[in-house]
Amino acid sequence: MPIHPLDEWAAARTQSLPLSALKGAVVGIDASHYIKQHLLHPSTREPLLVALGGFPFALRNSIERELQLFKDLGVTCIFVFDGLDFGTKNQRPHVSAESVRAFEQAWELYDQQQADRVVDAFSGAGTPRPESLYRFLQRILHNNGIDYIVAPYSAAAQVRSTAD
């Protein structure tokens, strides 16, 4: 019997409720997962992000709208950021060879002034690691009066311990 991923198992058992059902609740949010979801969502995905670097322009507004929605509904959010990546021997970020090739091809297209194809090429070159955007998200949270903590190690374990 094959082992099914947790997401598949959980997807079959999900229930949808309005966000207002969380009124008065404190919700722990894994910051890495939150950022990754925004980086991959079509409404906030920026195809030239790997070329330009920095924080995605559309992401700030989207996050601030969501934070305001939670406030309006009476939901308290606490974002939890990963701490030390202890025990990892290779501290260099892993970039796949495919991603490197796509990135190089995108710059070649740029040099050839093929603007139409450049955007698609950079879009296929991957997305930044969520950890590279931590400081940007922390600044947004601070400016909006939202609490956050940095876990000693894994945010997942810290989010779980806040539920107790």
From TrEMBL:
A GO MF term: nuclease activity
Domain (XPG N-terminal) ranges: 1-99
Coiled-coil segments on the chain, per record: none
UniProt-listed Pfam families: XPG_N
SMART domains per UniProt: XPGN
InterPro entries, per the entry: PIN-like_dom_sf, XPG/Rad2, XPG_DNA_repair_N
Gene3D superfamilies documented for this protein: 5'-nuclease
Lineage: superkingdom: Eukaryota
PANTHER family named among the record's database cross-references: FLAP ENDONUCLEASE FAMILY MEMBER, POST-TRANSCRIPTIONAL REGULATOR MKT1
Name this protein carries in UniProt: PIN domain-like protein
